[in-house]
Write a structure and sequence with these properties.
This protein has 105 residues and is mainly alpha-helical. The protein has helices at 3-20, 29-45, 52-59, 75-83, 89-104. Helix content is 65%, strand content 0%.
Length: 105
């Protein structure tokens, strides 16, 4: 599985997770989040493995120590993705990028 496919699968799984959440009076938050994450997964699949975000994810260790494992984000990215409620797919990817750049500084 390519890195992009692995990242997209992670986002898709998080979207499905949000669809399965039932919370009283969430005001549609989980549904909005699920749609945004599923949209981001589809958008991500259109990126190439040479996209600058992929290199940043590799450098941050999100694909294991040698860069060839499945996508496994750190705690900061996990929190960001799980709290993502709405926005364009590129906005989520930019937020991930900024979060990772902040950890390297």
């Amino acid at each position: 599985m390519s890195r992009i496919a692995s990242l997209a699968e992670y986002l898709r799984a998080q979207g499905r997770r949000k669809l399965d959440r039932v919370e009283t009076r969430d005001g549609g938050r989980n549904a909005r989040s699920a749609l945004a994450l599923l949209d981001a997964a589809a958008y991500t699949e259109a990126l190439g493995d040479d996209d600058p975000l992929v290199e940043l994810l590799v450098e941050a260790g999100c694909f294991g120590p040698h860069g060839f494992d499945a996508f496994q984000p750190g705690e900061q990215v996990t929190r960001l993705v799980r709290s993502w409620e709405s926005g364009e797919p590129w906005q989520l990817l930019m937020a991930i990028r900024f979060a990772l750049q902040g950890t390297r500084a």
